[in-house]
Design a protein that fits this description.
This protein is an alpha+beta fold. Helices cover 24% and strands 36% of the residues. The strands form 2 sheets. It has a 5-stranded antiparallel beta sheet with strand order 1-2-8-5-6, with no helix packed on it. Strands 3, 4, 7, 9 and 10 form a 5-stranded antiparallel beta sheet that branches.
């Protein structure tokens, strides 16, 4: 685990302990269920599929997960992918942007109800294999780091 992730994890644990002490363990269970429900509504289930050079997936962007983001990172099964090897487009008619092109001066803007497609170049991932994807977005607002993590079966590439 990199030092970059230890701080947010410790902060989350501290905040969770505070909520648990102040409001009881049932509050933590409810927060986890809400987070899981929101996350399930963000990732389009079944969209994880092989592409010519890796995998792709879609986020549906419901109103709870919108905003402007100054950076995007992705990890597949816990292995970080170089920003130059991943791209996205926020809307089917928009041009593709590399993760390395997203910055505070040129943020990624997610809008409610506008699906965002992601493509990650990586070693060929076999179809029918479960893959865990973690997408990290650095927000221009608070909280600074938003992440979405899901595990799904990789579908075969669609025929053109």
């Amino acid at each position: 685990m990199s030092d970059r992730r230890i701080g947010p994890i410790l902060s989350l644990l501290r905040q969770g302990a505070t909520v648990g002490i102040d409001f009881g363990a049932h509050s933590l269970e409810t927060l986890v269920r809400v987070a899981e429900t929101v996350e399930a509504g963000v990732y389009r289930a079944g969209s994880l599929a092989r592409t010519a050079d890796g995998v792709g997936f879609v986020l549906d962007n419901p109103p709870l997960r919108v905003g402007a983001f100054s950076s995007v990172a992705v990890a597949l099964d816990g292995r970080s992918v170089a920003p130059e090897s991943a791209r996205l487009r926020a809307g089917a008619l928009r041009p593709w942007r590399g993760f390395h092109e997203v910055s505070a001066d040129s943020p990624l803007e997610l809008r409610p109800g506008v699906p965002t497609e992601f493509a990650v170049a990586t070693e060929v991932v076999p179809s029918e294999r479960r893959l865990t994807v973690r997408l990290e977005l650095t927000s221009l607002a608070i909280p600074p780091l938003v992440w979405i993590e899901f595990t799904d079966v990789v579908r075969p590439a669609e025929r053109p």
